[in-house]
């Protein structure tokens, strides 16, 4: 019969399993026997825990006393690409962006000097009609305005002039009549033994002649005023005929027939860009210091090769560099003038140009990718102690050590993507090589430090098959 110990003294449970005894129902000998069994079980568990702890300490001591592992192996060489410096002919070009515009004396704007209604646009002058975009001569009629009122005033002035002319003719006859009166009185006065002509009558006749002559003179002045008024009206009529102010190419007309124009309204533009055209650029102070009058320039940015496309675009010249910056932007105005006989450049369009700020010269150069331009002055990485070793696949590979130096650069050719190296400087003063025989890292050199192991990375077949972009 199994004995179950129930430690809590609660009232008898009617649902207690059969065959179990409460502690208060057991005899003393049974209680002592059960207690010894429980104490023996607890002692056995303690022994097991002590043995486990002892084994753990033994294994810990064995681990601490073990010899340290060998140091990690050196990292594998970093794959890079290098090449020797080359002696090239480099030019430094500065790229600018601007807008094209005619020369200051090669642009004219046709405006309406008077208010009026458009009567005709591009009237036919002879057999050949004028069209937009055509080359026009100075004085060719472009637009006619309605000048009916001015013509009416001119006719009125001409009629008034005729009246004045008639009055002048009458005054001239009066002068002749007064002259005859004076002459007859003088003849009578000279007759002997005659006292019919009194001095007063003779004086009145002279005054009448003088008055007639004054009337003729006044009418002459009125006729002169009428002539000037007629000329002014004819000149005003000419203002209603809008003509080309200079020789050039006619732009887009901005008026239509029947439109009433206020004085000063724009009608069209006549541009002379067939011979030359300017490109106006606004540059920073740094670029303005590079640009000088007379420097050569070409149309297009760095993506155009001046050597291979020299005949494609004509050569221009810098004709203006502002001495004062713009008040709004702080940039400086620069004008480059280009021949434009083939009309490759149109007015008021965006154009990219490049200016030769440093003439070409022969020098030692490296690719732009070789420069570490995250520092000032820029850095450069060389490869030293190059040796040929076998790799894990049994193939030959070139390995070496790198050294970081500072590069003093000169001409930067943005078309060939090459940079002149004036000299190399070693901060540690340990480098004793020369640029002519140095191996320059041109790819994957970022992050390398002096003494790092590197290996030459051979080009893939796909990359080797690609032709070089530029020599």
From TrEMBL:
Region (Disordered) location: 1-26
Recorded GO CC terms: efflux pump complex
Record-annotated Multidrug resistance protein MdtA-like beta-barrel domain positions: 277-355
Signal peptide from the UniProt entry: none
Pfam short name (any one): Beta-barrel_RND
Cross-referenced InterPro entries: MdtA-like_b-barrel
Domain of life: Bacteria
Segments forming a coiled coil: 209-236
A GO MF label: efflux transmembrane transporter activity
Keywords: Coiled coil
Protein name as it appears in the record: Putative RND efflux membrane fusion protein
Species for this entry: Fimbriiglobus ruber
